[in-house]
Amino acid sequence: MTDKPDFSPGRRSFLSAMAAAAGVSLAPGVMLYAISKSSSAGANATGTEVSSAVRWGMLIDLNRCDNGCDDCVSACAKENGLRGFGRPETDAQWIRKVEIRNPETGHSKSLPVMCQHCEDPPCVDVCPTGASFKRADGIVLVDKHTCIGCRYCMMACPYKARSFIHEVLEDQKPHAPRGKGTVESCTLCVHRIDADRQPACVEACSDTGGGAMLFGDLNDPQSEISQRVAKYASKQIRADLGLNPGIRYRNL
Amino acid sequence: MTGANHWKDTVKPIIYSEIKGNSSRFYTLATILAVFILVALACAYYMEHYGHYVTGMTNQVVWGTPHVFAIFLIVAASGALNVASIGSVFGKAIYKPLGRLSGLLAVALLTGGLVVLVLDLGRPDRLIVAMTHYNFKSIFAWNIFLYVGFMVIVAVYLWLQMERRLNHHAKTAGVVAFIWRLVLTTGTGSIFGFLVAREAYDAAIMAPLFVAMSFSFGLAVYILILLAACRGSGREVGDVVIRKLSRLLGVFAATVLYFTAVQHLANLYAAEHIGVERFILLDGGIYTFLFWAGQVVVGGIIPMILVFRPATTGLIRNAILASVLVIIGGFAQVYVIVIGGQAYPLELFPGMEVASSFNDGVISGYTPSLPEIGLGLGGVALACLIVLFGIKLLRFLPVSMANEVIDPHYKT
């Protein structure tokens, strides 16, 4: 008996702790996203279980969204470390303000458009390596370690929500790993959500903007977002495609 | 049985041989092709080192000129195999001597196309990831299997054609290869056909359209390579072969025009597609020009006139010219499909005028950059170099394709 290796729980947990520590110190980004990826079935970045009982979503009220306001856009850029290179054609944009005008009536509106976090995301369907994935709680993400930069997801996305990194990046935020040659898009500030905080755009809109953006769990009938979408009419962009996006708009 | 034996008695076995490949012309050509390949590697390194902002590609036009070259080569690859299929699957004896070169060219074109595709990835260093992580819902992932499978099947098919003792199995391999190539081109067309969000794609007809394109482009490339290889190595190619191949090219060019017409007519009928149709057919600038002048006139109508008009002289010249024009028209067609289809904006809000900092609602500009063109030409050069060394190393080419050799019933 004494010759047999000791697989007692104490030793096992010590070994896994060592492995985790080595992983974190060697490649923090790898670990972070490895955990994120595994969460398509299981855990989030903090290691806790992600449940498909939750469906994160957003309701954006266009009557409260001002034409000239882009606080959500700048908050997103600040939060995720997005910086332009003065090349609008190739610079990444995770969220943008789109002005729409009805040519028949002249009526116009302004609205933020980002990854719509579809229930059936075409980007996930077409990705050859499975780098585009949907977490159990409905957040659509890109695994930056298996994205080969083929850009097929950008061809497939109906919302033009994705950007390809066209140049070398430096000083990325640890919670938002980004790199040349890969595709990226709005993460719904997954790192904030996992820490029970709101996405940066929603927070900024509520603090300094018109308070047009409401974030919450669409699956929870008691949540404010669920009650509002039940009470008021809301629309999804390109609802005809049947993708059931998690982002909904009021007064569109 | 008697009939079969009689046939065996009257048909002389076709003799194949390697080309000598020791002339200064051979080495000059090989050197030129190698230089193109080196330039392409330098272009790829430049694009990967600095990032894709040095190319003409943007977040609006995400697939650029390398994709045009890659798709043309991949589509032509499956089509190049048709000559072998006609011989062994459909039993046309005249095509049998042409089969080996057909298989070699198919593998060479596919290799050239895939290399361009891989070197244009954002992370070509992650090729191993693409080979080890599969999302089986992705048509792209299916295509990886289809391409690799095609290489293996055609290699076996070639072996069975070249090993006399196993010749009788060549037909079975030929049938498998023919079915596989139809599936492969269906897969390539479906890369576009499955894109529900894009106005210019999202149509089941993309698959048969691509199959028709492959027949036409592949045969055009085959005719040019066959004539170049035979002229370069002093082998005779008779009228019989050229007439057959060029008439077939005319039929294929007509088929492409037919599917193109159906594609656009179906779109024109639906009011929601009028915008993109107007863009491609009427006021899309370079895309409209390439469609009408490049694809329809240069790549379709003129080659058909060249090969179908009754002419007693200039048969080879017409075949070469028709093939070159089909290839030019083919590139124009792929350019219009790939680039033109992306240049037309996504319709997020049908019926509304839209504007944003991300080029919503705007026709996107795209200018091919030199590194992109260099990379694409390198793929073509690689395909040619593979053929050049293939016919030097193994017996792909018949010693003669003179009329009386090819057709036992030929009478002068």
Overview of the structural elements:
- The complex is a heterodimer of chains A (252) and B (412).
- With 252 residues, chain A is of the alpha+beta class.
- Chain A has a single domain (52-250), classed as Alpha-Beta Plaits, CATH 3.30.70.20.
- Chain A has helices at residues 9-26, 28-38, 71-80, 122-126, 152-156, 190-193, 200-207, 224-231, and strands spanning 56-61, 95-101, 108-114, 132-134, 140-142, 163-164, 183-184, 213-217, 247-250.
- Chain A has a 3-stranded mixed sheet.
- In chain A, helix 3 (71-80) crosses helix 7.
- The longest helix of chain A is centred in the first third of the chain and has 18 residues, at 9-26.
- The N and C termini of chain A lie far apart (72 Å).
- In chain A, 48% of the residues are buried.
- Residues 1-16 and 18-41 of chain A have low confidence and may be disordered.
- With 412 residues, chain B is mainly alpha-helical.
- The model of chain B is unreliable at 1-9 (pLDDT under 50).
- Chain B has a single domain, classed as Formate dehydrogenase/DMSO reductase fold.
- In chain B, strands 1-3 form a two-stranded antiparallel ribbon.
- At the A-B interface, strand 2, helix 4, helix 5 and strand 6 of A face helix 6, helix 7 and strand 2 of B.
- Strand 2 of chain A pairs antiparallel with strand 2 of chain B, so a sheet runs across the interface.
